[in-house]
Amino acid sequence: MPANARSTSLYRADQVRGIDRHAIEQLGIPGFELMQRAAAAAFALLRRRWPAARRIALLAGSGNNGGDAFLLGALALQAGFAVEAIALTAGSGGDAARARDAFESAGGHITIADAGTEIPDSDICVDGLFGTGLARPVTGVAAALIGKLNAAQRTVLALDVPSGLDADSGSRLGACVRAEATISFVAWKRGLFTADGVDCCGALELATLDLPENAYAGFIADAELLDDSITGLLAPRRLNVNKSSFGHVLAIGGDEGMGGAIRLTGEAALRCGAGLVSIATRHEHVLALNAARPELMAHGVDDPAALAVLLERATVVAVGPGLGQGAWGRALDAAALDSGKPAVVDADALNLLAQVPRALPAHAVLSPHPGEAARLLGSDATAVQRDRYAAARELAARHAAVVVLKGAGSLIADPQGRVAVCRWGNPGMASGGMGDVLTGVIAALLAQGLSPWDAARLGVALHARAGDLAAGEAPRGLLATDLFAALRRFSNGFA
């Protein structure tokens, strides 16, 4: 296993608890020692990130997450910090009880929380209320504390997982801590990187607690985190090539009044290296496409017969942006998918698939947002967001295709159950046309010979990284066309 495997491996909470047990029971590392290592790593992060901090408030639950907080508090007291602790209960269990005693022995004072308890004035609040074991909405005194913490807008360091966040799905379980930084112990929890996790966790750091590699034996990561090495999927180009060497994308869509969508798809495919890109659209859009982007070969297409000539020449089809759900769109969608060409299926092509399920080409990528995913699953967007991992896997299995579930922390799933997670992207990308651009990016990569799995993973990474570069420090007002220059740059590597 590569040395950086821990940095990209995402686990379910039950798997991390299993790794803990294996380290304790099979490798002989005492649980309290692991707790000490966690506290030391968290305190080191606190001092490194907030060097001027001198007053700490601890919020501690009764379990091991609270134990981590108490030991951090003991270290802080020994270093001359002022520390105030608020505990949910009058006692703690197991190793956490020993940690609580260590905190009090170091001179710490503990206040037992009630409904009226306020958050102490401090430079940093340390969230050690619940950790990964939470499986129900936070209620009662704990919910009140979290509400006051968030309302006070204090700087928060969360231990392992922000309290109130589902470590597996990344969805909020009622009241949820909003942290400025989160330190994850032993291994990354998959919920930190998608859905509400991206809002609640802040900056993320992993502390493996010096566990040896054999502590992870038998625990196969549930998902992988995309990193910069993904650009290695596109090899440097040989010199002795021509435009036919890099595939021909046929982008199909742009019903009346929606020509811009298919233009975005086509230009994105060019910017990401497709050798040729044709557009099949309404006649009324051809002149504008030729004027704005003459490198695109725009064709007015009335029916499947006219589309057939273009399909013969295509390597890959990208169908859906601006397609509409009328007779014209339905006819072209059916012809495109019946051609058997590798396909990227997006937007209205997904809505048509939800209305009339059909077999897809052997090499297909579906790219739904949560609403489209919900229609495909016969569900609703709230349910999809509640467990994005399950939704993406179900869609991939049901349609025998690679699926990109877009959103904060986009997921890429394949029919075998693999899932990759994108750590990049920004809220400025929640704007019209961004999905059309992504469709063109993935289509271009398919046309250059990548598999659907690799094209989807790299395409999502290129799209998100380009969005981050284009947004800079001002994501509000970002346009889909702002990504094009960055897409060209990143298609040649992330350096």
TrEMBL record:
Reactions catalysed, as given in the entry: (6S)-NADPHX + ADP = AMP + phosphate + NADPH + H(+); (6R)-NADHX = (6S)-NADHX; (6S)-NADHX + ADP = AMP + phosphate + NADH + H(+); (6R)-NADPHX = (6S)-NADPHX
Gene3D superfamilies: 3.40.1190.20, YjeF N-terminal domain
Cofactor: binding details: Binds 1 potassium ion per subunit.
PROSITE patterns: YJEF_C_2, YJEF_C_3, YJEF_N
CDD domains: YXKO-related
Binding site for (6S)-NADPHX: 64-68, 131-137, 160, 261, 322, 369, 436
Sequence intervals crossing the membrane: none
Function, as annotated: Catalyzes the epimerization of the S- and R-forms of NAD(P)HX, a damaged form of NAD(P)H that is a result of enzymatic or heat-dependent hydration. This is a prerequisite for the S-specific NAD(P)H-hydrate dehydratase to allow the repair of both epimers of NAD(P)HX.
Family: In the C-terminal section; belongs to the NnrD/CARKD family.
Protein's name in the database: Bifunctional NAD(P)H-hydrate repair enzyme
Lineage summary: Bacteria, Pseudomonadati, Pseudomonadota, Gammaproteobacteria, Lysobacterales
Gene that encodes the chain: nnrE
